[in-house]
Amino acid sequence: MAKARNSVFFCQNCGFESAKWMGQCPACREWNTFAEEPVAKSSPSRGGAAVRRDPNAAVPTQLTKVVPEDKVRTGTGIGELDRVLGGGLVAGSLILVGGDPGIGKSTLLLQVCRNLSARGQKILYVSGEESLQQIRMRADRMGSFGDDLLLLCETNLDTIREAIETVRPAAVVVDSIQTMYNEAVTSAPGSVSQVRETTGILMQIAKGSGITIFIVGHVTKEGVVAGPRVLEHMVDTVLYFEGDRNASYRILRGVKNRFGSTNEIGVFEMGEEGLKEVPNPSEFMLSGRPENASGSVVACAMEGTRPVLVEVQALATRSGMAYPRRTVDGPDLNRVNLLLAVLDKRVHMSFSEMDVYVNIAGGIRIREPSVDLAIVMALISGARDRVVSDKTIAFGEVGLGGEVRAVSMAKQRVMEAKKLGFDTVIMPQVNLKSVGKVENMRLVGIRNVKELQF
Ligand code: TYD
Ligand code: MG
């Protein structure tokens, strides 16, 4: 089959560009994600900056002469979202909200629209996915709305741009970027070139007129539609919804933020009337914890500035396979493999003929090494069938020698455990001094996992 010469292949997961089709993407290692797209026609939004000669912008400026801008932030009326945004919305910013279909992106943004419009701000909600009636039905579940929220069901970017120019809203929601198209680009809506081009134009609108724009991006598994990852570098702020769609809680995580810190999380619960904030995530994450069960240990991880208690569960069963199974949900798989090797070498507990499962209950993803100690304890507790008291928590990073290393913000972690009624903390010996004495709490410092007594 003769191919048109002016087409390229894009990885729909990460946006990697290639002249030929490939089975596996060399950049993000995903399989079967390449799709052919016609080469995008050059438009002023692309590469224009290098050609433009703006006499004012082209002069290098001394750093010390730059006047710092005082960014005014508008609260969204949703505390957990403001926390992830770094204190509220910055005018003229472009915010990408990603997540699996059905996780609650449209619901959250409609709630934001309601709160902003209730304060008399004009808000435009553009949907390419749902009809006006469907949005009304969703809104009716959430409560009453004012007259300043305008809806537009449209996918053509030119029409949307005109609507923004006439309405002059304070904020716009574009739901979702994968349904939008720009006529200047020949490829289909949802393709890498189309979503990039559309995002570029929305960026110009946001920066040019100081309108805050939310973009919804579905995370897709099939690789037929470009995922939000291809847009991460273009926008100011990237927020992802995590969590099991079947469970009721949702975690909103900031992974990029030009106007604040990242790695703050917001915790929500999906209810009958939309998303509810969960102000005390620890309580929520520990609800439903089994009592006196082996293989279960509570850890304390820091999520941004906030300590969150989570339950680590481990289960090891005899394996019938040459390569035993290692399944994790929550912690990092490589980290669990490393901890299994440490246990083998330093404690002489071998899992080489066992299938091992390690979960963090609640589906929260934790990448912080401070959960190491709890993982190790859960593995030992599960394998030996010895129960760790349910009033005990553990935190500490475990090194290759089995040594338990210091973690940051030990005091906050201990106080969070105290607040939730725990009485014993197993923690790195080196952190004991910085924590000092805490009333009604037994702090047990350990230097090496060999000291763990079961
Ligand atoms: P939605 O926000 O449309 O997800 P997304 O835009 O990320 O695809 O839908 C979230 C799910 O939550 C949907 O299956 C319906 C459900 N839901 C509730 O349980 N309660 C509610 O009040 C609303 C509005 C939705
Ligand atoms: Mg939606």
- The SS-based structural class is alpha/beta
- Report the helical percentage: 10-25%
Largest sheet: 9 strands, mixed
- CATH homologous superfamily of the largest domain? P-loop containing nucleotide triphosphate hydrolases
| Rg computed from alpha carbons, rounded to a whole number of angstroms | 25 Å
Average pLDDT, rounded to a whole number, is 89
Strand content: 25-35%
Overall tally of structural domains:
3
Which strands sit side by side, in order, in the main sheet?
8-7-9-10-6-11-12-13-14
CATH topology of the largest domain: Rossmann fold
List low-pLDDT spans.
44-52
Bound molecules: thymidine-5'-diphosphate, magnesium ion
Count of individual helical segments:
11
Instruction: Tell me the overall shape.
Output: globular
CATH architecture of the largest domain: 3-Layer(aba) Sandwich
Distance linking N and C termini: 67 Å
Any idea of the CATH class of the largest domain? Alpha Beta
Describe the structure.
This protein has helices at residues 48-51, 79-85, 105-118, 132-142, 157-167, 192-209, 281-286, 333-347, 372-384, 410-419, 432-435, and strands spanning 7-11, 17-18, 34-38, 73-74, 89-90, 94-99, 123-127, 149-153, 171-175, 212-218, 237-242, 249-257, 265-271, 274-277, 296-303, 306-318, 326-329, 354-360, 392-394, 397-398, 404-405, 424-428, 442-446. With 454 residues, it is an alpha/beta fold. It has three domains: 7-39, no CATH class; 72-279, Rossmann fold (3-Layer(aba) Sandwich), CATH 3.40.50; 284-451, Ribosomal Protein S5, domain 2. The strands form five sheets. The chain has a nine-stranded mixed beta sheet with strand order 8-7-9-10-6-11-12-13-14, with helices on both faces. It has a seven-stranded mixed beta sheet with strand order 17-18-16-15-19-22-23. α6 links the parallel β9 (171-175) and β10 (212-218).
